[in-house]
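Please supply some protein, with fold tokens.
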Amino acid sequence: MDVIEGGGTGRSRPRRVSLVAAAVVLTAGAAYAAVRSAGADGPGRAAAPTVAWASAGPSPPPAPSAGLPSGPPITGACGSVAYRPLASLQRQPVRTGVRLLVGGYGLRLVDADTGTARPAAGVPASDQETVTEVASTRDRVYVLSTACDGSAGRIYRVDGAAARPVTGRPAVDLVSGAGRVWAVERPADQDLALLLRQLGSTRSLVLPAGAYPLADSDAGLVIASRPPDPDNIPSRILVLDPTGARPTRPLGTGHPLAAGRTDLLLLTGACAPGDAASCSVTRVEIRTGRVLGRSRLPEGRVPVSTGSLSGDGKRVAFQLSRPFLATGSGPGHPRSPSDIAVLSLDDGRLEIVPGLEMAPKTGAGLAFARTGSWLFMSVSHGDHSHVYAWQPGVPGPLPIARLTGPVAWAPPLLTS
């Protein structure tokens, strides 16, 4: 078993209007999540949902942490500063049959079985620009490359090992689902509503004033009624008709963790970092607004990232804070480290990826294989990044690839 350090954080993450922004408030000098108490009070509240206590997986529960960084910082792209996590890597052959597209420093095509990586021609690879989004439809892949100043970026369509720019205005985000990818565009006047433009189509939608998109689902566009703010005030979650932006049903009020083709996951209960009580993940059916179940997380542990759903919608992966132990060590790192957790939404079983501790205020890119149980994770080392793989029963993360080139945050992943 090898023990190394890995992972990263940015001094400021590229500006985005997305599900990440709904669950994670990122501030200059300290990119971290601030998720407060929320409630799912939509029409499904009267249903009789399943309530499951999240049962621990094979890993022992972590001890309270003082929240100190794991080592000296490393400079990454856009002047960001990376703190590496601790990783106890396992050395064994990996046979997943998975191919990945990895953003960050340009776009790389990675073979998870051989570890080979090759750049996609046409996507800029620079320390002053970073690929912040990778999204796909049934037969197309798009990426968003954003400059360090956080201004709207350029969209590229990927065909095989090459990419070409997509004609249109600059975009601040990509939103995908239900066989569609939307470019999110912000008018010059920040007070005006966001515009969604469906890529590969002439269709466009203007969102209600103040709203921002979370995901596209089989039942319509899922949006939040207000953008995130430093106080992390909960938003009303609505479903819009994707043909005319007409509201069709409310889904509740709270902070989204993840949204897929059929379900929305909301954080409910005591979900602020440092809360001693229990936080729950509430599962809401998008088509009806009915609450399908709640999974209560261990006391004192809350999600500190957005979530990534598995292809079948039955599991979600996210960063879960460790219990916090205040030491008065200074304002630089007032948060605890975090683990990568996988929650089974049907029975509430919670598994922790063993051998990987994320430093305070750092992120990981997360993506499940399209089928099967493999979870892929990207971490930033500042001047380069790593891709790991894990599935239940494996005693630690498996190294997949080391990717050269500076990154500002954990690179986004897309599996195929």
